Amino acid sequence: MATLAEKGASGTAVWVDDRLGSSKFVKRSLNKVFPDHWSFMLGEIALYCFTILVLTGTYLTFFFEASTRDVVYHGRYLPLNGAHVSAAYASVVRISFDVRAGMVMRQMHHWAALVFIAAIVVHLCRIFFTGAFRRPREINWIIGVTLLLLAIFNGFSGYSLPDDLLSGVGLRIAYSVAQSVPFIGTWLAFLLFGGEFPSGQIISRLFVIHVMIIPGLLVGLIGAHLAILWHQKHTQFPGRGRTETNVVGSRLYPTYALRSVGLFFGIAAVLGAMAGLVQINPVWLYGPFTPAAVSSPAQPDWFMGWLEGALRLFPAFEIRAFHHSIPNPFFPTVLLPGITFGALFLWPFIENRFTHESDRAHHLLDRPRDKPARTAFGAGVLTFYTVLFFAGSNDVIAKTFSWSVAAVTLTMRVLVVVLPFVVAWGTFAVMRGLRDSEAEGLLELPLGDVVPWVHPPSNGHPPGGGEARALSLGDLVATDEPFVASPVLPEANPDSPAAKETVEPKEPAAAEIAWESLGLAPPETREPSGGE
Fold it and tell me: Which helix (H) or strand (E) holds 135?
């Protein structure tokens, strides 16, 4: 017998459906299938980190004061008692030592930001190396790259809000970068910073950007990203029963939903443990920002490390064009990021110029080995930015190993040019070898004999696009192409008519051609060997 609560819920559902007609949509949505491969959870990790960022950031805004006015700190952190600091810095120290759960929330917010950007980067790499950016997903690729760009900007703005010495050094570099833009640099720097650096308006402006503008854009783009994904259906790796027209995996409810809920709480638990056990950004040790001081060695958050490295490795020279000097920082910190993100935005169209694959939709993913050129190029580019990342710590490396900074810098300059080509060449050779090795197999004859066979490229696809196995003669004659058969068995019930039709010759002539091509007689005329 239904309880009162069940009757109320049922009545509410009927009332809502009567006005919105949502029952069909809800039923169809709950039955939507998602693939089970672990790599498809990378996007969800980024989404859940963003959710945690919103929750912890909301808590922090209740106590943070976005102002550079001078105050005298009085709180539980005794070394700073009586010191003149900015209101922003004092509020961050107060959050860390005086507000209940303030330290955990602040560090959880910071760790979530680092993991959020890392998850986006790895997610984009998965999409790149598997070709998930091809038609019809070019728009979602562009949205994803935009999300990465906004996440980096928001990470830097949040990192700069405490007004400590380390973040102040970062803002000073950002001011110099803005000034380095040819022709408009001075006006651009004044517009962004509200005057000469350090200005009294930069913290309040960064706060608005960090808390309102960029998060609003992120929410809108994430919603659009998910809506397009939902409409276009999910990609999947080639495999058993998977085609361009279906999706093999788990239904949204209950399997996938429960898995996602578990993943969210797992991520929250890991970030909470990191916040409680692993210290990050101890601003009370850095001290408040003063224009005459600088911290060394100074390291930014990881997502800015490649820009720091580019700035340190770029040779010390400037050029003059159109009667105007182009400052040195422009090339590594404005031109390089512009080329990087410009290439990312345009990559689906750049690749299509060479592959001409936009004539149809692609729902089955590539394996990296099946596209050795793309994989090699991606590996080389990742190597380039990895070297830049480590170059951003050249002073730390020199101090750790008792080397000179000049020697480390020179070594990094050589590596950033040579190593990407070496890695790309090696990756191409390995991927092509793996791809071609799958094109070789064994042909099983009806009487148990086997002979080597090679599966050549077919229909524009590279050899070995599926699972390597031994082929029977029936597989070859079923397609009426004795030596151009796919190495993947048709996914069907062996007892079904479709499966029987696949392994049985459809045309006697095709069988005869196959036997003749092997130099053998048909089964009914072939003489049995001894013992048979």
Answer: none
Residue closest to 88 by CA, chosen among 161, 192, 155? 161
Token pair 């009487």 in the structure block, residue = 447
Whether 190 contacts 183, CB under 8 Å: no
Cα 206 vs. chain centroid, distance in angstroms? 26
Residue given tokens 């943070």 in the structure block: 64
Burial of 313 (0-12, 13-18, 19+ CB in 10 A): buried
Scan for tokens 């070394």, then name that residue. Answer: 79
Residue type at 216 in one-letter notation: G
pLDDT at 505 over 50: no
159 HSE (CA, 13 A, CB side): 25
Angle between helices 305-313 and 405-437 (to 10 degrees): 120
Round to whole Å and give the CA distance between 347 and 440: 33
Write the pLDDT tens digit of every residue in 340-384: 999 999 999 999 999 988 888 999 999 999 999 999 999 999 999
* Secondary structure letter of residue 302 according to DSSP: G
DSSP readout, 14-61?
HHHHHHH--HHHHHHHHT-EE---GGGGHHHHHHHHHHHHHHHHHHHH
- Dump strand ranges (E) for 286-387: 319-321, 324-326
455 secondary structure, DSSP code: -
Tally: H helices and E strands in the chain: 21, 9
Residue 326's DSSP bridge partners are 319
Please tell me the pTM assigned to this model: 0.81
CA 329: distance to chain centroid? 28
Residue ranges and CATH numbers for the domains of the chain are 34-294+327-348 (1.20.810.10), 440-517 (no CATH)
DSSP state of 319: E
Task: Compute the distance between CA of residue 56 and CA of residue 96 in angstroms, rounded to an integer.
Answer: 14
DSSP character at residue 364 = B
Nearest partner of 244 among 114, 378, 127, 136, judged by Cα:
136
Peptide bond preceding 297 in cis form (omega within 30 of 0): yes
522 pLDDT tier (thresholds 50, 70, 90):
low
In terms of phi and psi (left: phi > 0; alpha: psi -120 to 50; beta: otherwise), the region of 377 is alpha
For residue 320, the 8-state DSSP code is E
Which H helix or E strand runs over 442? strand 440-444
- The conformation of residue 472, written as its DSSP 8-state character, comes to E
Question: What is the chain's alpha carbon radius of gyration, rounded to the nearest angstrom?
Answer: 30
In whole angstroms, what is the distance from residue 22 CA to residue 28 CA? 10
61, two tokens = 């805004």
Amino acid code (one letter) for 210: H
